[in-house]
Amino acid sequence: PNIYFTPPPITKNNHPSIDSIQFYTKKYTSEGFKHWKILGLPNKDYFDTLAKYTKEHQLKLVGHISKSVGIKESIMGGYSCIEHLQGYNKLLSDTLMFEEIIQLTKQKNTFNCATLDWYHISYLQYSLNEIYSREYLKYIPKKTIVEWKKNMSSYLEELKTLSKDSLKSLNNSDSIYIANKKLVLRKLFNSDCKLIISPDANGMFQVPGFSMLNEMKLYEEIGIPKYNILKMATLN
User: Fold this and answer.
1) What angle do CA 66, 110, 183 make, to 5 degrees?
2) Nearest-CA neighbor of 57 among 79, 27, 16, 81?
3) Going by C-beta distance under 8 Å and a sequence separation of 6 or more, which residues neighbour residue 161?
4) Once rounded to an integer, what is the mean pLDDT over residues 11-18?
5) Cα gap 170→182, rounded to integer Å
6) How deeply is 214 buried, as exposed, middle or buried, from its count of CB atoms within 10 A (0-12, 13-18, 19+)?
7) How many of the other CB atoms lie within 10 Å of CB of 10?
8) Residue 77 contacts by C-beta under 8 Å, 6 or more apart in sequence?
9) Strand order in the sheet with 35-38
10) Share of residues in the chain with pLDDT > 70 (%)
11) Secondary structure (3-state) at 130
């Protein structure tokens, strides 16, 4: 397989100065980089400058959608791939705008990577038994598993301090949030938008490689055929 690396990612609090963006864009392109990852952005002006020079040097932007920019401007600004389906959920209440962004995604050949497995664990869409009994956790050091379970227990204890109504409301909102992500993913697939697969396996109870299978099963659950899933996981 081909392995693609990005330069150090851009974050809201750690990024090259706006005056040095042109320099770094030329530098990274000359070093053979194809993509530059965004985890966060300081403001819209920074993004506009970044988009200008990365387009000029054909360095593709990938990663998170910044609230200061928004999904439409991000796609127009040259995003090659969006992570976590960020920016789509909030458009679901506006049918016309949602459809416009889906069509823009298709037109610009922008990929999406849903990372559903990470969300299913973090938003407790699996039962604890399902999470703890994942067969491939045997490849993780026992010390790490103990630490993960301790962190999960602490989180659940914290939730118990909420009132029953608050906890119920949180569970309902989390389930709706995940259901909406699946709706967005299904719409992107049905609209022939480009998709890739990654579980974002850097979280608790995830193992790189093995968690990929969980992610593929989640894609299948929303009605994407196996052939297309295999294509997303390889060719795409």
Assistant:
1) 80
2) 27
3) none
4) 96
5) 19
6) buried
7) 25
8) 47, 48, 50, 51, 55, 61, 69
9) 35-38, 60-63, 79-83, 111-113, 195-196
10) 100
11) helix
State the pTM of this model: 0.93
Q: How far is CA 131 from the centre of its chain?
A: 20
Residue for token pair 């999406």: 112
Q: What are the helix (H) ranges across the chain?
A: 21-30, 44-56, 71-76, 95-107, 116-122, 128-132, 142-160, 164-190, 210-221, 226-233
Torsional sign, CA 202, 138, 218, 228: positive
The mean of the pLDDT values for the chain is 94
Between CA 66 and CA 47 the distance in angstroms is: 9
- 8 Å CB contact between 84 and 182: no
pLDDT tens for residues 108-155? 999 999 999 999 999 999 999 999 999 999 999 999 999 999 999 998
The single-letter DSSP state of residue 135 is: G
pLDDT digits (tens, 9 = 90+) for 172-215: 899 999 999 999 999 999 999 999 999 998 899 999 999 999 99
End-to-end Cα separation, the chain, in angstroms? 12
